[in-house]
Amino acid sequence: xxxxxxxxxxxxxxxxxxxxxxxxxxxxxxxxxxxxxxxxxxxxxxxxxxxxxxxxxxxxxxxxxxxxxxxxxxxxxxxxxxxxxxxxxxxxxxxxxxxxxxxxxxxxxxxxxxxxxxxxxxxxxxxxxxxxxxxxxxxxxxxxxxxxxxxxxxxxxxxxxxxxxxxxxxxxxxxxxxxxxxxxxxxxxxxxxxxxxxxxxxxxxxxxxxxxxxxxxxxxxxxxxxxxxxxxxxxxxxxxxxxxxx
Amino acid sequence: xxxxxxxxxxxxxxxxxxxxxxxxxxxxxxxxxxxxxxxxxxxxxxxxxxxxxxxxxxxxxxxxxxxxxxxxxxxxxxxxxxxxxxxxxxxxxxxxxxxxxxxxxxxxxxxxxxxxxxxxxxxxxxxxxxxxxxxxxxxxxxxxxxxxxxxxxxxxxxxxxxxxxxxxxxxxxxxxxxxxxxxxxxxxxxxxxxxxxxxxxxxxxxxxxxxxxxxxxxxxxxxxxxxxxxxxxxxxxxxxxxxxxxxxxxxx
Lengths: 246, 252
Known about the structure:
The complex is a heterodimer. Chain A has a domain at about 55-200: MetI-like (MetI-like fold). Chain A has ten helices and no strands. The radius of gyration of chain A is 23 Å and the shape is elongated. By secondary structure, chain A is an all-alpha fold. Chain B folds into two domains: about 1-35; about 35-250, MetI-like (MetI-like fold), CATH 1.10.3720.10. Chain B contains ten helices and no strands. Chain B has helices at about 1-30, 40-50, 55-85, 90-105, 110-115, 120-145, 150-155, 160-200, 205-215, 220-250. The longest helix of chain B has about 40 residues, at about 160-200. The radius of gyration of chain B is 23 Å and the shape is globular. The two termini of chain B are about 30 Å apart. The mean pLDDT of chain B is about 90. At the A-B interface, helix 1, helix 4, helix 5, helix 8 and helix 9 of A face helix 1, helix 4, helix 5, helix 8 and helix 9 of B.
């Protein structure tokens, strides 16, 4: 993602002003799209009701927990698949297929076993998080530059040293990419599930306000989710750029 | 050949192991009865579902919603992608928002779709369209920036009008990107439509799933989920074939 340029700020102001004007002129019904000023008031409202900060923390907590499980399970699994070629080949296409599969649609299945709890949300998030990490960890380990391996051999590195001092560090950039994807996917998954099962953080907030037909508050929640997505993308982009060797 | 055989053996053993572990779990009574039904019960439910005419009317509803959403998303995505790809100021103005919304879960926009289109199939199609729109628009926008500038200059030097430029220069050069965006978008359109149906609807395959869930008919619920996965995998294979054919055509 590119840096937040002034034209983006101008576009936002123009669109908000336009919507405000149309809403005030009565051209857009408030039951479909409330005026931006009403959404702003809704924002203050949900913040006062405790439906902004705490739910955001809950959502991030669940997404981070899912990502952490993904990291702990995915990195060893990816390394193992890189080291045993037969298993790596056997599971390669499956991993790709699962990564593209609509796993989120299986949520009723998890609901049956774990009910409307954090467990359902975190376990489903962990499944979406672990796949990119396994794939990226394996790719990273398979593409350690031959020069680096040769250096290790010429220094008579033990297998353990060759792994910890050469192969693993060389795979780190690829693994970081996997973790970035995992974080984004598990966050999307978490918010979506919260909305669907009406439980947990920000997704639950939207579902609740919609159920009560508090439309400005519902819009405020949706705006908050989009804003968090934009902010997270921007932040991860910066972190990854800093970690990547120049 | 022995290498390939080993890979195949690992795959076969893994599948058998997963099924056996599942069956053991189902028969162990570690979980509440009925929560994890035995494979045989699921197979019976699946066959019964295939014999039920209601399955096909619901399947038709879902397919229609997916098709409408997907077509709208492709048309809109190509148009918006060309516009923001060709106009740098427009890209700077709306790009960050497109990236942000593209990364946000689309299902949270479902209440807005219901406010606009009601609880019937149109709101599901709208959610499918919204889901599929972003990959198409973003892939096309990125591809527009990589178009060979010579092609654009040739078009301009022939005094091509804007619609001629789009039809004769941009679109032909963008076909691979459009097909790629469509492949990414179709999967998301399916997810959008079915999640919408699961959340709030009175027809469609997603509705069948949540209806079975609400009546605690778990083997039947598994059967609908298997049908959904067959649908998703089939759609993915179909569009993958389209992509291969397109690539073969270009290679000629």
